[in-house]
Design brief:
- By secondary structure, the chain is mainly α.
- The chain has one domain (2-172).
- Helix content is 72%, strand content 2%.
- The protein has a two-stranded antiparallel ribbon with strand order 1-2.
- Helix 7 packs antiparallel against helix 10 (155-172) and helix 8 (105-124) runs antiparallel to helix 9.
- It is globular, with a radius of gyration of 16 Å.
- The chain starts with a strand and ends in a 14-residue tail after the last helix.
Length: 186
């Protein structure tokens, strides 16, 4: 196990395995490379500020897709209920993405509102037996919303918004370690 510096606890928890860090980095690099090629025409003509913002958000969202599934991050947020609420509250990325990728702000607002409301509901029912299936239901329905908007949205925006819904509703909002025997770290 690798102890994570305090500054990065909100991103990676208090500890991570080498394998988890490699998987997180691999997903960010591979998906970033794929999107940079597949969506090149969609982001290259944006202003430099919008490109930087979009790619910074990509790093945050894509890293969280996998990091929030790891034991270290999952346990960290289970042990810090207040930080879970803060995490939910600060996730306004669809609004910023709508601006930076020049997508309808109403799409960003709808996806953000849906995701935040559902994440709050999932956080409230964290100990309920149907928590995981409900997270799957809400995540899949969120994908349906993004897919509908994708008809008039660039692939790059669609991909990031799908990642966002998955990151917040399934990766983060589900306590994946519940009932799993694990190593205890303080």
């Amino acid at each position: 196990m690798i102890n994570i510096p305090t500054f990065f606890h909100e991103l990676l928890g208090k500890y991570q395995t080498k394998a988890s860090l490699m998987i997180i980095a691999s997903f960010v690099l591979i998906s970033g490379f794929a999107l940079s090629i597949l969506a090149y025409d969609e982001w290259i003509n944006l202003s430099i500020v919008k490109i930087i913002v979009a790619w910074f958000l990509f790093l945050d969202i894509s890293g969280g897709v996998v990091a929030n599934l790891t034991e270290g991050t999952d346990i960290f947020y289970d042990q810090h209920p207040r930080k879970r609420w803060i995490f939910i509250a600060i996730h306004v990325q669809p609004l910023i993405l709508a601006w930076s990728l020049e997508v309808s702000m109403s799409y960003g607002l709808i996806i953000w509102a849906y995701t935040i409301i559902c994440a709050s509901l999932l956080n409230l029912m964290r100990k309920h037996p149907v928590h995981r299936p409900m997270a799957g239901f809400l995540t899949a329905f969120g994908f349906l919303i993004v897919a509908y908007f994708a008809q008039s949205m660039p692939f790059f925006a669609t991909s990031l918004l799908m990642f966002y819904v998955f990151k917040v509703l399934y990766s983060f909002s589900v306590y994946h370690q519940k009932g799993v025997l694990r190593h205890e770290h303080s």
